[in-house]
Amino acid sequence: MKMMKSALFPQVAEVDIAPLSATDLDLVQLLSLAHDPKAGAVVLFSGEVRDNSAGKTVDYLDYEAHESMASKMICSIVEEAAKRWHLTKALAQHRTGKVMAGESAVVVITCSPHRKEAYAANRYIIDRIKHEAPIWKCEYFTDGTKEWGGNCSCQKLLAMPINTFMNLRVSFFFLIS
Amino acid sequence: MKIKVFAALKDYFDKDFLLEEDLKTIADLKAHLAKQQPKASALLNLCRFAVHDEFVALSHLIHENDEISVIPPSSGG
């Protein structure tokens, strides 16, 4: 992984990493890529697999993506947010494949001189990735059953916000420069 | 045309397959798939369609060599 600043938007820096990863998300390494002396605020969001859903114990989730479309879409969402909130650095990475309960399925890191913009941009990015990127989870329960998130039980899909499946954990770091 | 389906749609269709039928628009394709697998029709109604990785409207005209992705509602994150 390497960092690259956009030539077109020198005040902005989308961190150049793969938007999809088939292996564990390394939150510490991703955070280290995002540190920036111009940023007084770094917000890290990690969407993690909760061990229960709809009253059943979750063993793991399996994420499938339309990889080319999802990658393009994540890059474009991050780029748009970076411009809109004048972020100094921004990145997002989503897992594919098997993710165990307690592991990170998606991470978004946003950096800005002050915390307001970093928080707003971070929420914008994760909301759009969850709702728009062609990525799907299949829940595997300890009782041996499985269920696609947002599958054919359409009433349930429409009645239940997608984020009820997730344990949402936000950590934040203030760096006073 | 080549069709790719994802997620819960794979319970009803092969993950990719070729269609030789004379289907003019994406709407025709959607109706054709629903006829093949009536149990998938509720899910198909929630799907978006993409041709060569770009989302298209139901009125989009299909070309012979198009690769069409059928995209169920996202459930990432």
UniProtKB/TrEMBL annotation, chain B:
Which InterPro entries does this entry report, sorted A to Z? Beta-grasp_dom_sf (IPR012675), Mopterin_synth/thiamin_S_b (IPR016155), ThiS/MoaD-like (IPR003749)
A Pfam family reported for this protein in Swiss-Prot or TrEMBL: ThiS
What SUPFAM superfamilies does the database record attribute to this sequence? MoaD/ThiS (SSF54285)
Q: Which domain of life is it from?
A: Bacteria
According to UniProt, the name of this protein is MoaD/ThiS family protein
Biological source species: Pedobacter puniceum
